[in-house]
UniProtKB/TrEMBL annotation:
Protein name: Spheroidene monooxygenase
Region of interest called Disordered, as start-end residue ranges on this chain: 98-121
Organism this protein belongs to: Nocardioides plantarum
Length: 228
């Protein structure tokens, strides 16, 4: 069986009902055949990847499935139908894990750490997620702006947004790149990003962290009026 990962993003006009759906929808996350991991997420505009970036009009659902058939059957309609009906814009990205290291809420949602095939061609996506140490959060946020400035201009970047279970201390990113080469160029050849990575361990920013790469298999819908 091949793991399938779906990310759905909804743009809604009304904030209060969206917050209510976030609070009540969590009870529908479990119990679907083949669903191994799921998270309802807030999003950020991707300009600073700090709490002030939070976008109350865009919300997301990440699901991880045992196989294609389970993913096609999808989440509980009692969870997704209200979001679909309320959405003025929707984006859906289907992916297959290439590599993953670290944990999310104590789990390895995309499988145990693996080595990414060096010959993978086509678009790739990246999910990062971290639980910040309260005492280190300010230091982390001070380190972010130079990285974001470089990210906004990175060749091959198709989409970047912040994601997380909460706007404070539970930080994450989702990005899509034209190719693995474009991602590697940014991650390892951009000075600000290299410096941030080098500081991660000595700065002890994270109580828990995860980094995963995916092959992008299908993109449907739009984000901010554009198909990534």
């Amino acid at each position: 069986m091949s793991t399938v990962v779906d990310l759905r993003v909804w743009d809604v006009d009304r904030v209060a009902p969206a917050v209510l759906r976030m609070a009540t929808g969590r009870r529908h996350l479990a119990g679907r055949p083949g669903l191994r991991f799921a998270k309802l997420l807030g999003t950020g505009a991707g300009r600073t990847f700090t709490p002030r970036d939070a976008d109350p009009h865009r919300w997301a659902l990440l699901t991880v499935w045992d196989d294609e058939a389970s993913a096609d059957a999808g989440p509980d309609p009692r969870l997704t139908d209200p979001w679909d009906e309320a959405a003025s814009e929707r984006l859906s990205v289907r992916m297959t894990p290439l590599s993953s290291r670290g944990r999310w809420s104590g789990a390895e949602p995309f499988g145990a750490s693996t080595d990414e095939p060096p010959d993978h061609a086509g678009p790739v996506a990246v999910i990062t997620r971290a639980r910040l140490r309260t005492s280190r959060a300010a230091s982390f946020w001070r380190a972010v702006p130079p990285v974001v400035g470089d990210l906004a201009q990175a060749p091959g970047l198709r989409l970047a947004l912040g994601v997380g279970e909460a706007p404070v201390l539970l930080q994450g990113t989702f990005s899509i790149w034209e190719s693995r080469r474009h991602l590697v160029d940014f991650a390892y050849r951009t000075a600000a990003h290299r410096e941030a990575v080098a500081r991660t361990e000595p700065a002890r920013w994270y109580a828990e962290e995860l980094f995963a790469r995916f092959a992008v298999r299908d993109v449907s819908g739009t984000y901010r009026g554009r198909r990534p």
